[in-house]
Amino acid sequence: AGLDPGRAQARLDSREDWPALESLGREVRAAGFSGVPFFILDRRLSLAGAQEPAVFAAAFERLAAAAGAVA
């Protein structure tokens, strides 16, 4: 990903970012996010975990119908 391996490892070892990561973890758990990946579609629909393409297609169709879009 273009990161210097030594610098990246030093950052991980420093635990400098742990408080922020722990805070973010508490926030997402409080919001009910429990799987990775977790998708939020149009701030109204969510999908947890890996999904088949048909699941995404159905979700997009549902959102389009709710918005009054013509497929």
Structural class: mainly alpha
Residue share in β-strands: 5-15%
- How many helix segments? 3
The tally of beta strands, per DSSP, is 2
Biggest sheet architecture? 2 strands, antiparallel
Helix and strand layout, with pairings?
Layout: H1 5-14, H2 18-30, E1 38-41, E2 45-48, H3 53-67
Antiparallel strand pairs: 1-2
Structural commentary:
The chain has 71 residues and is mainly α. It has helices spanning 5-14, 18-30, 53-67; strands spanning 38-41, 45-48. A two-stranded antiparallel sheet has the order 1-2. The longest helix has 15 residues, at 53-67. The chain starts with a helix and ends with a helix. The mean pLDDT is 88.
Summed up, what is this model?
The chain has 3 helices and 2 strands. The protein is mostly helical. The radius of gyration is 18 Å and the shape is elongated.
Name its key features:
about 70 residues, mainly alpha, two-stranded antiparallel sheet, 3 helices, about 55% helix, elongated
